[in-house]
């Protein structure tokens, strides 16, 4: 398994293209600049299978429709945020003077969905609310990587002052779900550089003493 990070939009959101040896691919959080994302997919000669969302804030969904329509892809999102795709108050775009929406998802995940298999990709679906109520992280054990969305960053954690956010809930999610992963697990966040679970356990100032 390999992945490519594409940083897009005014808030520098990380979109990820995960792909295998057969050039099949999963697109995670296409946040903006759909043309740029599609150009990267085409240059790698990939065959996308699906779009996965870690959560539905506006900076993670802005290119969903352009990518999905280009390749006729299913879209996966947690049930608690399925209506955020069309609600600019909940997805936050209204508060930043924008009107960013996406068409409804074709596949809705719940807290009972612990795994997800698409093609050769086998994810563990970790419910990691706090940054938003329906935030999920996708753990790919075979690649020793977790796509954490905006739950955990290098040296930081997600903001919790937006609609439905809760710092207590987020810290609980990080401690009970993400920090239980092997320390060598690469953390691929929604913003900023990659890190590892071990590095965050040792040095993240927001997690000290938790």
TrEMBL record:
Pfam families: Lactamase_B (PF00753)
Keyword entries, A-Z: Hydrolase, Metal-binding, Zinc
Molecular function GO labels: hydrolase activity; metal ion binding
CDD domains: metallo-hydrolase-like_MBL-fold
Protein's name in the database: Metallo-beta-lactamase domain-containing protein
Cofactor: Zn(2+)
Ranges where the Metallo-beta-lactamase domain occurs: 12-191
């Amino acid at each position: 398994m390999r992945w490519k990070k594409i940083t897009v939009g005014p808030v520098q959101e990380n979109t990820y293209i995960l792909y295998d040896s057969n050039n099949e691919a999963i697109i995670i959080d296409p946040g903006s600049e759909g043309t740029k994302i599609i150009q990267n997919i085409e240059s790698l000669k990939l065959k996308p299978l699906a779009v996965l969302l870690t959560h539905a804030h506006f900076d993670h969904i802005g290119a969903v429709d352009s990518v999905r329509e280009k390749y006729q892809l299913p879209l996966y999102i947690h049930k608690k945020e399925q209506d955020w795709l069309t609600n600019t108050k909940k997805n936050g775009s209204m508060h930043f003077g924008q009107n960013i929406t996406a068409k409804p998802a074709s596949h809705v995940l719940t807290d009972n969905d612990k795994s997800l298999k698409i093609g050769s990709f086998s994810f563990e679906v970790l419910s990691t609310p706090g940054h938003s109520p329906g935030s999920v992280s996708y753990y790919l054990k075979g690649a020793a990587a977790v796509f954490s969305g905006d739950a955990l960053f290098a040296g930081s954690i997600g903001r919790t002052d937006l609609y439905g956010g809760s710092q207590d809930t987020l810290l609980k999610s990080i401690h009970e779900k993400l920090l239980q992963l092997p320390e060598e697990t690469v953390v691929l966040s929604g913003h900023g550089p990659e890190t590892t679970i071990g590095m965050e356990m040792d040095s993240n100032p927001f997690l000290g003493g938790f």
